[in-house]
Amino acid sequence: MRDTRESRLLLVLLIAIAFALITVDIRGGEDSPVDGARRAAATVFGPIENGVSGAVDPIGNAVTAVRESGDRHDRLAELERENAALKAELGSDDRGRSRLKQLDKLLKVSGQGQYGIKGAQVIAIGAAQGFSWTITIDAGSDDGIQRDMTVLNGDGLVGRVTTVGPNTATVLLASDPDFTVGTRMEGSDELGFAAGQGDRPLRVELLNGKAEIKKGDRLVTFGSQADKPFVPGVPVGVVSRVDPSGGDLTRTVYVTPYVAFSKLDVVGVVVQAPGKDPRDTVLPKKPQPTPTPTVTVTVTPSAPADGLNQQEQ
């Protein structure tokens, strides 16, 4: 339609009529004269609206589902992250509890033996340095560590310090074939020298070829002059095998060490030797044998039969 004076007058007239119809419809309520026309329009255009709605709603629902799916995915990812963080925290707590337990045992041993120790943590094993049976600890000369100091943990003898840096030190383990330490048997005081054999028990040569040794006997360190490289009284291990004497000047026994060298974590370097030899006081308490229950069966004589009673009468 062209923009003329007549067209503008027609537009104004149509607007006026529309307002008039709206006014009449509102005032008429349910009796409105245009109600029939409105119903007819609804009848005609209703199916079209439903079809359009039916076509649009799945798209809208799909968009909503995708959006909610994204929200669920984000929430799931967040829960997975929280779960991983919780597992890491629990793992850290477990490790912390394990270290706390090791430290507690170490302090107990050092207290019993009156050893002045410097606590340290194992940060590397010998394979990284070209050695078979050594470890590296995170304490060095800045911490008062010196060469030829005894190293122990809450179970017993770990080894001795061989190399010292400002912040780290290398420890030769008692399981190394080049390791040797003087030992003393609990109770009998029989002296000997223990040597490492890798992952096998320590080999101990007793000075007395006729020494009475049996499986289950225990050993501690004898100590060195000026307490270097070994302080006395550190638990070494338990005799697991005794070779026949054979009349030799020495006697060979094999000892299972107290320390699990493949599980080292928290250790202590003895920076101050005890004032006196602790002897056997640092050894763990011997396990008490479990008593074997005995069953006593008492046989009660049965009552005589009635027939026998009658014959006796």
UniProtKB/TrEMBL annotation:
Gene3D superfamilies xref list: Rod shape-determining protein MreC, domain 1, Rod shape-determining protein MreC, domain 2
Keyword Transport in annotation: no
Cellular compartments per GO CC: plasma membrane
Annotated GO biological process: regulation of cell shape
Region (Disordered): 275-313
Source superkingdom: Bacteria
Keywords: Cell shape
Domain Rod shape-determining protein MreC beta-barrel core: 130-270
Pfam families listed in its UniProt record: MreC (PF04085)
Extent of the signal sequence: none
Family: Belongs to the MreC family.
Database matches in NCBIfam families: mreC, PRK13922.11-5
Function in brief: Involved in formation and maintenance of cell shape.
Protein name from the UniProt record: Cell shape-determining protein MreC
